[in-house]
Structure formats: C-alpha cells, structure tokens
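In the laboratory, one determines a bound structure by crystallizing the protein with its ligand and collecting diffraction data. In a computational setting the workflow is compressed into a single prediction: the sequence and the ligand go in, and a structural description comes out. We illustrate the idea with pyridoxal-5'-phosphate.
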Amino acid sequence: MPTPRIAATPERLLREEVLALHAYHAPTGNGMVKLDAMENPYPLPSQLREEIARLVTDAAINRYPDAGARSLKEKIRAVSGLAHDAELLLGNGSDEIIQLLALALAKPGAKLLSVEPSFVMYKMIAAFTGMQYVGVPLAENFALDLPAMLSAIERHQPALVFLAYPNNPSGNLFDADNVEQIILSAPGLVVVDEAYYAFASASFFPMLARYPNLLVMRTFSKLGMAGLRLGFLAGSPLWLAQLEKLRLPYNIGVLTQLVAEKLLQHHEILLQQAGQIKQDRTWLYERLAGMEGVRAFPSEANFILFHVAHAGRVFEGLKQRGVLIKNMSGVHAALADCLRVTVGAPQENELFIRALQDSIYQSKNGI
Ligand SMILES: *Cc1c(COP(=O)(O)O)cnc(C)c1O
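The predicted complex, in structure-token form:
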C-alpha cells in the first residue's frame, strides 16, 4: 500500500480550537434514579401515547419532512402567544440554535460574551465556530455583576451576548432591569435563553417588541420532549430572515414535527406536569435547606444547586446508592463543592434525600 508523504493525522489537520476541546460527556444513567439532566420525569397519558403510536405508524418516513415545518410553527406560535410581528426559527434542540447564531456572527475577531458560571455550551460553541469567548464572572449568589458586564461590553463590543434566564446551573433569574440595561448597551444581539421558562415566574417574551437586538430562545426539552430535540428562537423578522439562511433545511425530522405538534395540542398536560414539578421543587428545596451542612440556592428552574462539604465524595456516595445527579465541582471556582439535582417525581426526590443524608453522614465520618 502506498504511504502518503505526509500522514493525515488529526493533529495536523484539525483546527487548534477543536483539538483543545473535550467532547461533551453525558452518562446514560441506566437503571439509576436519574436526576442529572433536567428531564421531565413524567410519562404521557396512555391515550396520548396511543395517538402518537398511530401518528408514527402512518408517518411518511420515506419522504423528507416539510422543510419549513409550517404546521408545527403555527402550533408553537399559538401556544407561546408570540406576537404577529415576531418571527420564529426552529432548531434541532436549542443547542443547534446557539451554534447557528455563532456561525452567522463569527466574523474574524467577533466575540461571544456570557456570564460564568453558566451554560457550558456557549463557550464550547464559541470555540466550534471560531468566535472569541468572553466570560464575565457573576457576583455573590450568582447575581449579575452589572458594572462588570457593562464595562466588558464596552471593552469587547460583543457581537453576541447569551444570558440564561433562569441561569443554569444556579437556577436563579437575573434582575430584569439589569438585563434590560445590558440589552440597551450591547452593540450586538442579546439572546435571552429561556430553556426553563415553564418553571420560571418571569420571561423576556413581552420585551421582544421593545428591543430590536433582543432574541428569546426556548426549548421543549425541559418541558418533556428532551428526546425529540426541538427548540426555537423568536425575534424580529429582520434578524430571523437572515438566520434562516443558515438553518439546514431538514433539521426538524418528520417524527419530531408530528409528535411535537401532537404534544402541543395537549400543551395543558405538559404545563400541568411542570406545575407539579414546581410544587415538588419547593418540597425538595425545603428538605435541602433544612439539612445540616447543606446550602441550597433558590431556583426558578426544574433543578436545585446546592453546596455541601466533600461534594465529590457525596456525589460518589449517591451514585453507589443508585442516584445520579450532576457534580458541578471543578466546573468553575464559584461552584466548588456544588452539586445540582433535577427535580424528579416525588418518590425519586424522597429516594434522593435519603441517599443524600446517608452519603453526607458517610463522607463526614470518612467511611
Ligand atoms: C438544556 C439547556 C439548553 C439546551 O437545550 P436543548 O435540549 O438543546 O434544546 C439550552 N440552554 C440552557 C440554559 C439549558 O440548560
């Protein structure tokens, strides 16, 4: 076999940013109480599952989907109460929309700014697309540091700002006036990422009409459709018409279009489940807050961040007891000894609390 003179190794050919990345790792959690990924723990009513089965049976999976996903978009407009003069763009999960935005704005030297700690994909996707990333540290209790934000915006002139609202992994809503000041002073787009809107008490949706550089992104993942991969971006048609050019035409598959539309016809079921999760979040928060050695952070999302001594050992102790949550220690200095638990079904939450008590006891006594 002839050997080429220069070997085609990844090290030689790949962009440095890609070589430096670590692949996003998500454990499967098979057979465990899975409270690590902000999923909705509830199954759908059996009648609705049967309707979905019929839809799938009859689906033309030999054909390409509707490239514009028109019917699904109409349904999303209706359930989200989107104003008539706002436009929508659909993504294969909102992760894909983050990537599309960055790809569109990645002029040489262009910057993507967010806060830290926040959703890790902002930084990763900046690297994917060759944008320069700027991370502004949050203040005490994960609040926005407005002076630091305004001066970073002034200095870096970011083309793109991402604010998760509520923030992941801290769970809090930023001060809305601060966010508005950021929108007003930003020279580029500000994307308010409302992945957890279904569990939160506030939204920037009503502000879309007021700020032409504001876009609001949402996903249906946390509402109970994580497996379908569907997110959307809402905002001014001026922007969305340009961004739409970068969307791969068939990014939303036939099955996702059919099933998501069906689920949105029964939106009240999903909202009811979200309501239950919010109630159980209160239960879980009170248990955590009342536990010795634990400091829980208030949450407007379907997860709770908490601080505990020897978090790594506690996390392993939970795993040994069949409970998978997320270890945030080591992700960022402000998250040292922090763990994040997704609100599950009541029985899962109880199992988690019991396993946590045991794990803390064990790690404290060095067993
Ligand atoms: C989960 C999450 C997303 C991504 O959700 P998709 O499943 O890709 O739609 C985006 N932003 C934040 C803040 C998230 O927590």
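Residues 10-44+269-364 form a domain with the Aspartate Aminotransferase, domain 1 fold (CATH 3.90.1150.10). Keep in mind that any predicted model is a hypothesis to be tested, not a measurement.
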